[in-house]
């Protein structure tokens, strides 16, 4: 662990590690499964699981002797969903108009610590073809425009963060070296917008503009995804419109998009 990282409470971290064992592919696990996945002693695992069950974070199916995530999360998720819906209500008219005007896929991304994910995507009504954006999927930081905005923020706060970035290759155009990544982030920071061209998907590119909160933290990005062959004819106007949207909404949110 980095010497500047905050000290973690071991028992809490172990409980979180147990919860992280569950996902769409493995919604149910046995005690032994969880012990193996977390590499914890079976008795330690049992004690932590019993505590999680008592607090409704896990459910114990005694018939099949398996564990699942508890209904505790439904109530908490509704709190988060309410906040997300509030953002969508503000952004939707802007993004719908942008998608139709430029025949692009227009989306907003929320930033959650080290993750960026789309929460609303607008598509052009009269386009024969358009690009579908995956919602609630963690975007690769080095290969997407919104990801680069997030990565720039993380890098500005901690230059050593780049050492953690895995440069997974999606296309021949994906950034391959930390030197090239740093050069890209320098441009992002200077221009206050990010661009990627065929770095995540061939023939596809994107532009993204940041929105910061009152403390200067990146909270949302607005982006447009398009077929690269169309970029030359629309880039300047599209980028200007994205910046206008970010600035307009920053005022509504009482934040700063500069």
Q: In summary, what is this structure?
A:
With 258 residues, the chain is of the alpha+beta class. The protein contains seven helices and seven strands.
**Average pLDDT level:** 91
Please give the alpha-carbon distance between the first and last residues: 33 Å
Q: Counting H and I runs of at least 4 residues, what is the number of helices?
A: 7
- What ranges have pLDDT less than 50 throughout 5 or more consecutive residues? none
Q: What is the number of strand segments?
A: 7
The secondary structure category is: alpha+beta
Rg value: 21 Å
Strand arrangement, major sheet: 4-3-7-6-5
**Helix share bin:** 40-55%
3D shape: globular
What is the strand content? 15-25%
Instruction: Give helix and strand order, one letter per element, not per position.
Output: HHHEEHEEHHEEEH
The biggest beta sheet reads: 5 strands, antiparallel
**Oligomerization:** single chain
Your description of this structure?
- The chain is built from 7 helices and 7 strands; from the N terminus they run H-H-H-E-E-H-E-E-H-H-E-E-E-H.
- With 258 residues, the protein is α+β, with helices and mostly antiparallel strands.
- Strands 4-3-7-6-5 form a 5-stranded antiparallel beta sheet, sandwiched between helices. Strands 1-2 form a two-stranded antiparallel ribbon.
- The longest helix is centred in the middle third of the chain and has 31 residues, at 72-102.
